[in-house]
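Run log, item B.
One chain of 180 residues. Sequence copied directly from the ordering sheet:
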Amino acid sequence: MKGKSFSDKMTSLRRELNEEKSAKANHNRIIEELTAARAQDVNNINNKLQQLINENSLLKGQLSQEVSHRRNIELSQTHYQATIDSLNQQLEMVRAAAANASANDPHILSELEQLRTLRDKYENTLAELSNNNSNLKSQLTQQSEEVGSVKQQLGSTEEKVNQLGQHKCLSGSCPGSQSQ
């Protein structure tokens, strides 16, 4: 009877050992699947992060171009305003001269008309530049908001990457740690 009970115990122990081995193999498989899934998630997040960085760089470049273009328009606007002011002064001098000269002098009337035409032309150009400047300011504001949004997304993504890295370290699969 002792032989049978010993044999039953050995059979029972073998069964338990096989169940433990099977459970360990299942756990190892689950761990490998989770590790692979996390690695894929990290790769996806890294790709998204790189995409956001590229978009951020592109937006910064566009913003820089817009600022430069706006600066050029403001310089041109200043130049045109100075020209308009100068033409207005000349017009006032011609008007004063016309008031003193004979009213029918064709040379003075012709010069007066030329000055008026030039003044109108520069005022129209100034109005267009002012309109363009307003549009560029609006675009600059919008792109600044987009850059802020991208920066916020970038920060959120970096935080997620850090959390995944910490979670990975806690599960024992940190770079540099030895698995047993």
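Observations after the first pass:
- The two ends are 42 Å apart (CA to CA).
- The longest helix spans residues 2-100.
Flagged for discussion on Thursday.
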